[in-house]
Design a protein that fits this description.
mainly alpha
């Protein structure tokens, strides 16, 4: 109570203590709620496709929607591939740098990185020799793998771009 600057304030009651009647200021009068605005008529553009369209047009609309969905899915798959390539290249670059500066493989992070990237580098082991001095190693297979994986992903994404691009009109 000595350090409480609101000790004389009747609204700062201690927990469990009810203030005497009339000690609290009266509440403000609540304003009545306003009526919500009337609903608007639906816009013709957002209306569903009416069955008055011929069946050929309905099929065309359905095919266009399916094509948009397929293009979107292929585009998202391309985005995923670019993201995966970036993660793969960074992991391989870290391995190359760690081997170059002789990072200790008994360290948890370096050991995990060597184990994960070792699986990815299996097809490239033994292509060329890895020159080493003490524990320092210049891993040519890692650099070759980085280049090959980048070319493979570039080829796949280029093929996917061909799938979703529209043919160009011949110039006359």
């Amino acid at each position: 109570m000595y350090g409480d600057p609101f000790y004389s304030d009747p609204t700062s009651a201690e927990p469990g203590r009810v203030p005497p009647p009339g000690a609290l200021p009266p509440m403000e009068e609540l304003q009545p709620k306003q009526a919500p605005p009337p609903p608007h008529e639906p816009v013709a553009a957002s209306a569903p496709v009416a069955p008055s369209l011929p069946m050929a047009e309905l099929e065309l609309v359905n095919r266009e929607n399916e094509a948009r969905t397929l293009v979107f899915a292929i585009g998202k798959f391309k985005d995923f591939l670019w993201w995966f390539l970036a993660v793969l290249e960074v992991a391989l670059l870290l391995r190359f740098i760690f081997r170059l500066i002789a990072a200790d493989p008994s360290n948890a992070f370096a050991g995990l990185l060597y184990a994960l990237t070792g699986i990815i580098l299996l097809p490239f082991n033994g292509i060329v020799k890895t020159p080493s001095l003490h524990n320092w190693a210049f891993e040519w297979p890692t650099l070759i793998a980085m280049a090959v994986y980048a070319l493979i992903f570039l080829a796949i994404t280029s093929f996917l771009r061909l799938l979703i691009s529209t043919p160009k009109e011949p110039e006359e």
